[in-house]
Automatic annotation (TrEMBL):
Pfam family, one: Macro
Protein name: Appr-1-p processing domain protein
SUPFAM superfamilies: Macro domain-like
Domain Macro positions: 5-187
PANTHER family: GANGLIOSIDE INDUCED DIFFERENTIATION ASSOCIATED PROTEIN 2-RELATED (PTHR11106), MACRO DOMAIN-CONTAINING PROTEIN (PTHR11106:SF111)
Record SMART domains: A1pp
């Protein structure tokens, strides 16, 4: 099993910190919520969803399925089962309508935005996201990371705030390295909130 390593990179976005970590998102410590890139039916079969269910317990899936169907662009919050007290909530944000479908950059952006907005609504101050849509969804790590950063910047522009800590988690070392490259490229642009901490 892959543990968890980080932060490998820390940047600022508004008054928030964005961090990149590498490993198994369920192994994080002291995080308010982790995000499950769900399907609208809330069936936690494979990928990150299956990993969360295996560690947290089947009750997470049972709780989430009471809300189904959840459209792409909406998100729900459940308890974190056996992940507590290290992780207090799971945010289920669909990136696809049915299990094991391909997804798109636009759907990942909508899912990320929904996860961040529900975190703000519920007073969740630290949130960890895997590479949304990059598993069975078929997107590359670069496409996934860019879509997530687009959503983060969009929420900041429109709402004026973000959770104070946003953690992007690449499962493999290669994934985390790609995430770091994308964040650095973004930080080099003029029209971005993202800047490398001094």
């Amino acid at each position: 099993m892959t543990g968890i390593k980080g932060p490998l990179l820390k940047v600022e976005c508004g008054s928030s910190t964005i961090e990149v970590w590498q490993g198994d998102i369920t192994q994080l410590e002291n995080v308010d919520a982790i995000v499950n890139p769900a399907n609208s039916l809330m069936i936690m079969g494979g990928g990150v969803a299956g990993a969360i269910r295996r560690v947290a317990g089947d009750e997470i899936e049972q709780e989430a399925r009471r809300y189904a169907p959840v459209p792409v662009g909406k998100a729900i919050v459940t308890s974190a089962g056996r992940l507590q007290p290290r992780i207090r909530h799971v945010i289920h944000a669909p990136t696809m309508e049915r299990p094991a479908m391909r997804t798109t950059v636009e759907k990942v952006k909508k899912a990320t935005r929904a996860a961040i907005e529900v975190a703000l609504d519920k007073g969740i101050d630290s949130i960890a996201l895997p590479a949304m849509g990059a598993g069975v969804g078929g997107l590359s790590i670069e496409e996934s990371t860019n879509a997530m950063l687009d959503a983060i910047e969009e929420v900041l522009r429109e709402k004026g705030k973000l959770p104070s800590r946003i953690i992007l988690v690449g499962y493999l070392e290669h994934d985390a390295r790609k995430m770091i490259e994308v964040v650095h490229r973004r930080a080099a642009k003029k029209d971005t909130c993202i800047r490398v901490s001094s």
